[in-house]
Amino acid sequence: MADGRGDPGVFTATALPGDPRLLPTLTNAFLGTRAFRDILHAAGVYSGAAGDTHRADVPSPLGLRMAAPGARSPAESFTLNTWTGTFSHTIQSPGYTATHQLYAHHSLVHLMAFSITLRRLDGCTHPVTVQLQSLFVPQSQDLDLTPGPDFQGAHYIYGRTLVPEVEGGPRPAVHMLWTPIPQSLTLGGEERERCWEFLTAVAGSEEEAKRSYSAGLALVAAGSLHRSHVRAWAALRRSCSVELDGPLALRQALHGCLYYLLSAIPPRDGPGAPFHGISPGGLSNGTRGEDYWGHVFWDQDTWMFPNFLLLRPEAARAILQYRVRTLEGARRNAREHGCEGAKFPWESAATGREVCPEEIYGAQEIHVTGDVLMAFEQYYCTTQDQKLFREDGGWELVEAVAQYWCSRMEWSEEEQLYHIRGVMPPDEYHSQVDNSAYTNAVARRSLNFAADLARDLLLPVPEEWEDRARKIKVPFDEERKYHPEYDGYSPGEPVKQADVVLLGFPLMHPMSAEVRRNDLEMYEPVTDPAGPAMTWSMFAMGWLELKELQRAQSQLEKCFSNITEPFKVWVENSDGSGAVNFLTGMGGFLQVVLFGFTGFRITRSGLLFDPAFPDDITKLNVSGVSYLGNKLEVAITREETRMEVTETSRDPPASPLEAVLQSGQRFPLWEGQSVSFPTAPGWIQRSPS
């Protein structure tokens, strides 16, 4: 059992899981691998055309195992420390310990490293030897690799992917330097302790690979390579800390989610290189046939993004810039389907063209285009960053999505409403349906945001945007007071995953508490219990909204069947099938804590709050909540809520804030001054003063 001696952020085991897919991942914004795996992946490096596009396998010198052949019954342990972003394997023998540490450097994103440390425990002077068992071969099924001259003691290979994503398109380059690895290491008879460090640098150019390798060597010489990584990682964890007083299993799950999700985003002061999006299984996975080939879905924009937005808005912006960069591909997708504007792909890689291997999803699961735009809207409401829209391509994307929805709708003379026909809703058990409630509601939200943003930017608002937003059909059963999933849906029909319940959150589609309850009651019993992991989080969100805390807890507990031991790696489906290291499920789970327990809701006028959490949780503390250039620390108990602005942006200057309770009480939020009030509904807004 991974008890971490009671520390919820340290997962320790004496044996590894039988399924190597469940080993912990080590990733940063550019590189990713799994512990003991002989391949790694680099962000944006895909090989294969169209539906065969997959993350290119880069051979990894990091995938070795340490063995102590002469040791008498050694004790082994394996630890993932989420506070230091480090995985370690320790062999404890009667006379010595051998420790193998592995990490993806958080701030030097082109660098991964491991160390082997041998330390004597007694006065014995016999040499101590450990073997390094490696499967590394400098070859790849996806890259045309050539050896180059050694550099500062490192071996060097370079090459390009074999097949471009689109005909005539670029084939990304890979340059890799690595410290040669001996078959064994020996601690001499007179030595008490020794540490050997091994670097692997991977980049898209020879210059960057050499620069990163040299920077790593300099840190090794100063004795501070691992320390520099731990310092960068710890600063990230401190700046977006989420802690709760509650059951150990819940706290462990929370720290696991934070570790795997935060590993995927660029460092705050990292290089200005383009970010390449986040796939459901992360950068460590996505070879051909695995974890959806490393493609980017709505999982990024709907399930992961809101957490990053609240805690790390710079990372959220990088995700949006990935979508801006792929806008031309999305325009081509729209044209190929006879539409105007931009149709974002169901599965995206480097170009924004559709790379889903099965045509039906790319053609019909069009809600992804609205999901992308909802992330832009949430970002705008939270940051008021007009530069993204005025100068950095955001407005062109918003406009193109609005144009797409207008061209995809048809007028129904019979109902005097606009229809969207022939789609697959989030519930993938149904296809070719008309008027998916979720798809049409997200289209309406897209059009409303486009119109609101145009006004803010002092641009003309096309009349058809507002007209179609008003007149698009969102199916509603007046008799039963609930939203049918699509035209012709019969109550009781099985549903794959969260669909209509997403109208309440994150869409915040207008409805009464009665309708919200009816939607939850209607779909909860017919949703496939073996469906994807993020589903139950959204039912928990709905019940928290309605203050049905026991029902919320029972939904949240379903998530635990998707969390594997001992390293808290999520699987997409509770039977172990689907994606592994399922960041989508983790994103949904984290949203329950960050948006469900707090009641945070992002609106144009303010950040709403209305806390509620299950009986076995007594306190929630979130540091680094970002809103309008301010960083807030928020501590909530059932009786009292405390808020403090801990940091304000200088350029552009942060907006002064106040907390307002529904009762009308106002509390100015000044930097460095803590305010407390009874826990109750309210909102944070720009202070009128």
TrEMBL record:
Residues 284-490 form the Glycoside hydrolase family 65 central catalytic domain. It catalyses: (5R)-5-O-[alpha-D-glucosyl-(1->2)-beta-D-galactosyl]-5-hydroxy-L-lysyl-[collagen] + H2O = (5R)-5-O-(beta-D-galactosyl)-5-hydroxy-L-lysyl-[collagen] + D-glucose. InterPro entries: 6-hairpin_glycosidase_sf, 6hp_glycosidase-like_sf, Glyco_hydro_65_M. Its EC number is 3.2.1.107. Transmembrane segments: none annotated. GO terms for molecular function: protein-glucosylgalactosylhydroxylysine glucosidase activity. It comes from the Eukaryota. GO terms for biological process: carbohydrate metabolic process. Gene3D superfamilies: 1.50.10.10, Maltose phosphorylase, domain 3 (2.60.420.10). The keyword Hydrolase applies. One of its GO terms (cellular component) is cytosol. Pfam families: Glyco_hydro_65m. Keywords: Glycosidase, Hydrolase. Belongs to the glycosyl hydrolase 65 family. Catalyzes the hydrolysis of glucose from the disaccharide unit linked to hydroxylysine residues of collagen and collagen-like proteins. This is Protein-glucosylgalactosylhydroxylysine glucosidase. It comes from Gymnorhina tibicen.
